[in-house]
Structure formats: structure tokens, C-alpha cells
Amino acid sequence: MLNYLWGIMIIVAIIFGAVNGRIEEVSTAFINSSKEAVTLCITMLGVMSLWTGLMQVAKKSGIIDSLTKVFRPIIRCLFPDIPKEHIVNEYIASNMIANVLGLGWAATPFGLKAMQELKILNKGKETASVDMCTFLIINISSLQLIPVNIIAYRSQYGSVNPAEIITAAILATLVSTGAGVAFSIVARKLAKVS
Amino acid sequence: MSFLLYISSFIIPLVVLYVVGYGFLQKVHIYDEFVKGAEDGFKVVKGIAPTLIGLMVAIGVLRASGALDMLSSIIQPVTNILKFPSQLVPLVTVKMFSSSAATSLLLDIYKEYGPDSYLGKLGSILMSCSETIFYTLSVYFMTAGVKKTRYTLAGALVATMAGVVASVIVTGWM
């Protein structure tokens, strides 16, 4: 996918720039953009490491485990057909908590394990189970509460108050997740009727 | 709304206070653990750095050639009806496919208009409340060996659109 997209972007930029009489700007942009990406990564190193460091403390002190327990009843509501003591509950909870805390890279392995277990529960069918649909819709609705990376980008580009978007971002995230949850619940009922 | 701003400035200090304070009470070696965890941050950034360089260059040259401006003036008539800024349409669309490509577009918005401008804020919030739909769907469903995905895409699109509408509304409050 990105192989095409990236290639097209670069080729279009060079040809369009040449026709548009802006080839000099394009030339400078190649060098400057690559430098800029590295400068940005240095800012990101600071903010991301601060966050992952804090999350390690939270993990060690048991905060993340107790958050996962808080999520249990929510998961029972969203996935009423999954056996209560099944390991997949654990995977789904861990995946969601990691997403909420903005640890996307830590969330994916749990998410994939959850999908493998759901596959077994679905008896390996090629058609997605209702639980898989719910899990993915909620996952894609974006659960991250504090957008740490966006705050880092904003600070790099000279925002006066990089964190000022937090509350607005939380509200928007709640709306998108709410819509995903509502859609999943309605779709599950409809799927049972038919 | 200054209230939103007011809460925003409290969230990070409160989270840090809670994590550090609780760890302290639980007699965790908080500093040792912090340093250990901070290493993961390096791994994460190291992982995204190459894609970020590649994509920021692509967006940078596209901007310099004038192609991005042309694209937004082409879609402007449509977005005017929807009351959504045409400059952010590529951001929302690209985010469905690739997170790093969308990040590069967001940074381009910051450069052109500033992170504290209306476009900068709206872009930040749009990025915070959406996910890479097609990427996630393909990776997760491949793992489960699923070919028929039923209503998952429809649900994901509904959630994303709800997020877009909510972003426009809350940014209007700021």
C-alpha cells in the first residue's frame, strides 16, 4: 500500500514542481524534511521515554493490573457470549488498557492473541464472529485518552501550550468510542434476530 | 472555552502524581523502574524514525511543489458544503491507511498554520480520536484467518465519522 503511495507522492512532487517552476523549493524540501524528521524524533525521545518510564512504574506498582480488573465488567457487557473465565477476556482487557494509556505498541501483541483465541471460539470459520466485529470496531474507534505523541509534536512546532488539546481530545475520543460501542451493540442484536 | 484549557493543564501533573505517589506507597523502586521503562521509549522512537523520515520527505516535497495546495483547492467546493476545512481532508483520509503518513501531514499543517491555529488544533484532535482502520483490520483479521468481515468496516467508519464531527464541535469551543 505505502509502496505505491510513497512512490506516487515523490514522483508527483518532482514532476509537478518542475512544471510549476518550483523545482528549487522541491530540492531544498528533500534535504530539510529529512533533517526535520530527525529533530522531531529527538523531541519524541524525551516525551515518549518519560511516558514509557512512568508506565513501567505504573505496571510495577499494580496500577495497570487493577485497571484491567476495572475493565472486566465492561468486557462482560460488550462480549456477553464469551465464556466468563476464558483467557481471551484477559487479552481483550490488556489490549484495551494499553490502548487507553497510549501504549499502542504494547497493545498489538495482546490484540493479536485475543484474535487467535476468538478464532478458536469461532471454530476457525472464515466469517468473522460477532465478538471479533465488536472487538475491532472498539479498537479502531481509538481508545487513547492522553495523546502523548500529539503533545510532543505540538511542542516541537512551538505551541504555546502543547497540552491544551487534552480535554478536547478526550471528549472527541469518548464520542467516537461511544459511537463504536453503540453500533456494536445494535449490530449484535440484529445479528441474533436474523 | 477556558474550562477545557483549565482541566487540560491539570491532567498530566495529576497522572504523574498518581503514578509516582502510588508507586512510592507500594515501595516500588520507582526511579529504577522509571529508567528501565524509559528505555522502551527509545525502542519505540527508533522503530518509527525511518518511516517518519521517509514520509516527512514525501509530504515536504509535495508541499514545496505546490501540489498539496492544488489538491485542497480542488476539494474546497465539497468541503465548504460540509463545513469542514479542505486542508484537513487529506489528514482524515490518510489516517485510515497509515498513521505515520498522517503524522507527516499533521506536522505539515503545524508548519503552515501553526499548532495553535484553528487548523492546528482541529488537526491535533482529529489525530487523537482516530485510528488506522484498514491497517488494523487487515492485520487483525489476517491473524484470525477471517475473510468475511461482516459489518466491522461499517462500524469502524461510523466511529471515525462520529469522531470527526465531535472534533469539529469541541474545537469550536476552544
Automatic annotation (TrEMBL), chain A:
Residue span, Nucleoside transporter/FeoB GTPase Gate domain: 42-151
Keywords associated with the record: Membrane, Transmembrane, Transmembrane helix
Positions of transmembrane segments: 6-25, 37-58, 91-112, 133-153, 165-187
InterPro entries: Gate_dom
Protein's recorded name: Spore maturation protein A
UniProtKB/TrEMBL annotation, chain B:
Family annotation (InterPro entries): Gate_dom, SpmB
Keyword Signal annotated: no
Domain of life where this protein originates: Bacteria
GO cellular component: plasma membrane
Keyword Metal-binding annotated: no
Residues spanning the membrane: 6-25, 45-68, 88-110, 122-141, 153-173
Coiled coil, from the record: none
Residues in Nucleoside transporter/FeoB GTPase Gate domain copies: 46-146
Keywords of the record: Membrane, Transmembrane, Transmembrane helix
The protein, known as: Spore maturation protein B
Organism: Anaeromicropila populeti
